[in-house]
Amino acid sequence: MKVALLHDWITGMRGGEKVLELISGFFPQAPIYTLLHVPGSVSPAIESHPIHTSFIQGLPLAKEKYRYYLPFMPMAVESLDLSGYDLIISTSHCVVKGCMKREDAIHLCCCFTPMRYIWDQYDFYFGPGRSSMLSRLAMKTVRPYLQNWDVVSSARVSEYIAISEFIQRRIKRYYRRDSTVIYPPVDTDYYVPGGKAHFPREDYYLIVSALAPYKRVDLGIEAFNRSGKKLKVIGTGQSANDLKAMAKPNIEFLGWQSDESIRNHYQSCRGLIFPGIEDFGIVPLEAQASGAPVLAFGAGGALETIIDQTTGLFFKEPTAQSLLNGLTEFEKINWNPQKIRDQSLKFSKSAFTQKMKSFIEEKSGFRF
């Protein structure tokens, strides 16, 4: 079978790209089709594939401002010529699940989420104070078109994979499609407890996150402003300046950091703070693999990866006060780093590889 891989855009190495990296390893010769590619922005394993882009690649300022071209993305993905492929595997959180294929071809979609910025998290991106007046007016105009296209194009997928039960419910709600849950992989060989595996560790807490509105890093900033406890924030994003402006001196922004630096911080922090609602959430599992407990908002994918009061603790409301109350309880628990790490092993690369290959074979007839 002739195989093609699809990914929305290739501009950095985040959770979705780690899934793409493993799947691309199953098909070393397969080309990757994407809307936009920033060369050198992802791992050598992904960069080694032939990468084909859409017309968005050539648009003005596309590498920095590609999200502004969202209204054109359905047209861009439909323009990709996939007529020569028997099996298409997409890893999608935006539009590539809507690609056009031959009638007899099989399309398996690993869906990270239905397009969050046009469905349930629209207000986090385009609500008052979240974006410019021009952006809000533009999205108000194009949102119905994008929602309609998203639903109609969802029928082009042969079989869906959901990255969590949380996303499985979203796929059912918006697309009226069934899906199979396969949890994304965590590199439990790389993320391991360090020399400070046993508690107490160093006296600081950690957030590792893109600095985007829906990540709710603002809750962590507000809570630690009140507590005075030390917090380190690793990550970059469009909300960085606003978050820095509201933070007190006990909060340190470290910007982008290497995987090695992130691992070192996981290994030495008192705990990871995870205040948003995530589709799955690789970061809490990387922290747990490193022996760090997690204080997370009790919603979304975190409910499927954290064992309450054993590998972490949930706070109940999306407020700074609820997070602070959770932090008080968090510090009363005698955490066991080995039990914390054991939970992460259920989500290892080997577990993902076995389940994903079995799914591909069952649904497509491809044989590895």
Overview of this protein structure:
This protein is of the alpha/beta class. The protein has two domains: 3-185 and 349-364, Rossmann fold (3-Layer(aba) Sandwich); 205-346, Rossmann fold. Helices cover 38% and strands 15% of the residues. The protein is built from 15 helices and 13 strands. The protein has helices spanning 15-26, 44-47, 62-65, 73-78, 122-126, 133-154, 165-175, 217-227, 240-246, 259-268, 282-289, 302-305, 320-330, 337-344, 349-364, and strands at residues 3-7, 32-34, 51-53, 87-92, 106-111, 159-162, 180-181, 205-208, 231-234, 251-255, 271-274, 294-297, 312-315. It has a seven-stranded parallel β-sheet. The protein has a six-stranded parallel β-sheet with strand order 10-9-8-11-12-13, with helices on both faces. Helix 2 links the parallel strand 2 and strand 3 (51-53). Helix 8 (217-227) crosses helix 13 and helix 11 crosses helix 14. The protein is globular, with a radius of gyration of 21 Å. The protein starts with a strand and ends with a helix. The model has no long low-confidence stretch (mean pLDDT 94).
Short description:
This protein is of the alpha/beta class. The chain is built from 15 helices and 13 strands. β6, α7 and β7 form a beta-alpha-beta unit.
The CATH topology of the largest domain corresponds to Rossmann fold
Overall pLDDT confidence: 94
Structural class: alpha/beta
Run of helices and strands: EHEHEHHEEHHEHEEHEHEHEHEHEHHH
